[in-house]
Amino acid sequence: MEPAGEPDEELLTLLDDENVRTILVETREESQSVEALSNCCGADDSTVYRLVDRLQDRDLLIAHQELDPDGHHYKTYSARLERVEIEFTNSGVEIDVDRREPPSDRFTRLYEEFTG
Question: Which three-class secondary structure string do you get for 64-75?
């Protein structure tokens, strides 16, 4: 969650980017490679890598290590962003970000609740 009451211009600017929104939508249900995301965005790989890095820095995208049939490793990405709420108040702008819990964290939490 972003700090309430403190507008986060970087987050708002990031989400204003059409390619960022495309990446978040395309990775919502299924993780995607940078190559696939580049095709969806109509942008070059270097642009998508830069945006992926920014989204990961904000904990809005998570990387997964994949193994292709040739034995090479590559990464795919899935969205952690669930919802962003922007509220305009008398004291300014408040941003609330809801993130999805990664499956590994959810499994650990459920196991600890079960054994705890």
Answer: EEEECCCCCEEE
Residues 48/37, Cβ–Cβ less than 8 Å: yes
In terms of Cβ atoms closer than 10 Å to its own Cβ (0-12, 13-18, 19+), residue 81 is: buried
d(CA 91, CA 7): 11
Distances (CA, A) of 37 to 53, 57, 68, 102, 112: 13, 18, 18, 20, 36
pTM of the predicted model as reported, rounded to 2 decimal places: 0.77
Tally of CB atoms within 10 A around 104: 9
Q: Is the four-CA dihedral 89, 91, 95, 96 of positive or negative sign?
A: negative
In order of their start, the domains of the chain are 9-115 (1.10.10.10)
Per-residue pLDDT of the chain (116 residues; tens, 9 = 90+): 444 434 477 888 999 999 999 999 999 999 999 999 999 999 999 999 999 999 999 999 999 998 888 888 889 999 999 998 988 889 888 888 898 876 555 555 565 667 76
